[in-house]
Amino acid sequence: MGPTRSKLHKEVVENLGAPSVAVRCATPEDAPVCGQICFDAFHKISTDHGFPPDFPSPDVAVGLLSMMFSHPGFYCVVAESDGRMVGSNCLDERSAIAGLGPITVDPSIQNRGVGWKLMEAVLVRARERNFPGVRLLQSAFHNRSLALYSRLGFDAREPVSVMQGPPLRKQIEGCSIRPAQVSDIENCKRLCMQVHGHDRAGELADAIKAGTALVVERHARITGYATALAFFGHAVAETNLDLQALIASAESFAGPGIIVPTRNSDLFRWCLENGLRVVQPMTLMTSGLYNEPAGAYLPSVLF
Ligand SMILES: CC(C)(COP(=O)(O)OP(=O)(O)OC[C@H]1O[C@@H](n2cnc3c(N)ncnc32)[C@H](O)[C@@H]1OP(=O)(O)O)[C@@H](O)C(=O)NCCC(=O)NCCS
Fold first, then answer.
1. Is the CB of 81 under 6 A from ligand 1?
2. Second label for 112, Cα 20 to 30 Å away, from 58, 83, 142, 195?
3. Quick check: 91 and 98 in contact, CB under 8 A?
4. Is the Cβ atom of 200 under 6 angstroms away from ligand 1?
5. Which one of 144, 284, 303 would you pick to mutate in the ligand 1 pocket, going by the greatest count of ligand atoms within 8 A of its CB?
6. According to the model, what pLDDT value does residue 32 have?
């Protein structure tokens, strides 16, 4: 039998004088350095292409990674080379499908195999934990990450648009919105199962605790929910009307914006007509189990 793809890759990069890299589990103490790298990496790739960076300041990236590196529902790794940290990656293990990211590598050492190793580390973990699928969102203008993820087995599934704008502050007739409660989790799980074929209860439970989750009801029945109307939140609903009611109720869209599946033309057009503007295109990529959604949804930046 010939060498595996991974071994071949290692030999090739070693022959080219690639840096020696070790990958280990992240600790909360790694967050300040990794957060700075995360900020620098996104800032460079986005500004090189004329897009606004995903993180407005290093502090925001440090805050996010501090949360992920200390949360028991995330598996996070860092890469070290010559005794210094050069990148990190995370796997969100809170729900039935694992979400991957943010993966970032110090811009001074990119394109030399570090990203590949950080990807392999979390994909091995996902296999060990028997996740039926792993998903991520890829910046559509970034050729390198598209090539990297595709070669590691991810399929491009859905073009999406990050959208931002002033809050709509509207009510949609027939829909009522209220904060989600722990007692709503079972109904929301069922709804997510119906639309996606799996639930995202772990993320919803965290969002209820954080006070960002909302449900929409029609005829006294839950017809949709959102963990947050934000870059890091997802929403699932029976219809576009339910999603519109959730979007229209938001006080703001945290982070770069909400993520709208571009092929959902009615919803996409409705967002445009209501003053939201496209910030950047992304692509939902999946590996393993995937069902074509049977309803309306907004992915989070994880999936
Ligand atoms: C994405 C990122 C993590 C990848 O890490 P990296 O260390 O640069 O990536 P690697 O060197 O391991 O792998 C990149 C591969 O893509 C290949 N590649 C790069 N540009 C390519 C292109 N235009 N077409 C095809 N392949 C390409 C490289 O040749 C390399 O493969 P090889 O090692 O077999 O030659 C890193 O570039 C980064 O931090 N980017 C900014 C932040 C970001 O965008 N994160 C991802 C969010 S979606």
1. no
2. 58
3. yes
4. no
5. 144
6. 98
Does ligand 1 come within 6 angstroms of the Cβ of 45?
yes
The tokens describing 241, both together, are 């009307």
Which among 252, 271, 61, 254 is positioned nearest to 160, based on CA atoms? 271
**CB of 188 closer than 8 Å to CB of 215:** yes
Beta bridge partners of 133: 288
The confidence score (pLDDT) of residue 17 equals: 57
Is residue 112 in contact with ligand 1, taking CB distance under 6 Å? yes
Whole-number Å distance between alpha carbons of 163 and 283: 14
| pLDDT for position 13 | 46
Which of 141, 146, 89 is CA-nearest to residue 118? 89
Mean pLDDT by 10 residues, the chain (303 residues): 48 59 98 98 97 96 98 98 97 97 98 97 98 98 97 98 97 97 98 97 97 97 98 98 98 97 98 98 98 96 97
Rounded-to-integer distance, Cα 281 and Cα 301, Å? 12
Q: The pTM is what?
A: 0.93
Question: Which residues are paired to 113 by β-bridges?
Answer: none
Residue 109: DSSP 8-state: G
Tokens 């005794």 belong to 83
Q: What is the DSSP string of 177-233?
A: EEE--GGGHHHHHHHHHHHHSS--HHHHHHHHHHT--EEEEETTEEEEEES-SBTT-
Q: 């029976």: which residue's tokens?
A: 238
Among left, alpha and beta (phi > 0; psi -120 to 50; other), residue 111 is left
Cα separation, 293 vs 112, whole angstroms: 37
Q: Are the C-beta atoms of 135 and 97 separated by less than 8 Å?
A: yes
